[in-house]
Amino acid sequence: MIPLKSEEDLEMIRRSGKILSRVMQKLCAYIQEGLTTAQLDQLAEVLVSKEGATPAFKGYKGFPANICISINEEIIHGIPGERKLKNGDLISLDLGVDYKGYFSDAAITTAVGKVNPRIKKLIEVTKAALAQGIKQARQDNQLSDISYAIQSFVEGKGFSVVRDFVGHGIGHNLHEEPEIPNFGRPHQGPALKTGMVFAIEPMVNMGSWESKIVENGWTAVTKDGLPSAHFEHTVAITENGPEILTG
Q1: N or C: fewer beta carbons within 10 Å in the chain?
Q2: What percent of the chain has pLDDT over 90?
Q3: What is the pLDDT of residues 47-102, one digit of tens each?
Q4: 222: domain CATH number?
């Protein structure tokens, strides 16, 4: 069953999402060459705490950090540490917030300094793919309409969507039903209803869609070593269409 949220639930998730949006903006503004990923992680913890919320990832299934920071060929679940950001790096930030028991989740990919045009296009296509998926998060569409919109857009631009990791429901818990793949045929799966809340998150690779997990047991990287980008919003399905709660 896909849980439906009440108006009161949606208001609280909306508050959680606004906190997350503000924190992500500040983190992105702080990114610069020479900064360590551990410093970004520490800043995320401080910023979320100042908002009266809690980072949702730390300790979740044993994850050791407040935020996932994935660089270049890393797709998701990068663990912050002493690695320093370099000019030309592609960096993805993925952060969840727990505000009074209501969860939101968002991700953004940006560049450190100047990157080559192909990487810049990868960022732009991934961001646009998220927008395409969100457009399909409408009452009486079916779940795979979101998936198909993302896949067809990405592949039409010459990139590939990751298949080993997916979006998810969210709200009272960080991960709820359903899983939301970024690929698939249209008009499949359950009908979408007002009150559903989803974390929609295309992960897009420059080369092959294939991935593998590195030795730390968490971080997923591209098998071919080419860059990957990741964008995510928490989105509510309403009578008036999709509402981005982390925008």
Answers
A1: N
A2: 99
A3: 999 999 999 999 999 999 999 999 999 999 999 999 999 999 999 999 999 999 99
A4: 3.90.230.10
pLDDT level of residue 147 (50, 70, 90 thresholds): very high
Structural tokens at position 123: 């960022």
**1 part of a folded domain:** no
> How many beta carbons lie within 10 A of that of residue 35, not counting itself?
16
* Residue 23 to residue 45: CA distance in whole angstroms: 10
Residue ranges making up the domain that contains 191 = 7-244
| Cβ neighbours around 209 below 10 Å, total | 23
**67 vs 36: CA distance, rounded Å:** 13
Question: Token pair of 27, please?
Answer: 């983190």
Tell me the mean pLDDT in the region 152-169: 98
**Total number of domains in the chain:** 1
Give the separation between CA 143 and CA 116, rounded to whole angstroms. 35
In a domain, 39, yes or no: yes
Locus of tokens 């998810």: 168
Asked if residue 177 is part of any domain, the answer here is yes
Average pLDDT for 30-46: 98
Residue 2 lies in a domain: no
Question: What pLDDT does 19 receive?
Answer: 98
Q: How far apart are CA 168 and CA 149, in angstroms?
A: 16
* Predicted model pTM: 0.97
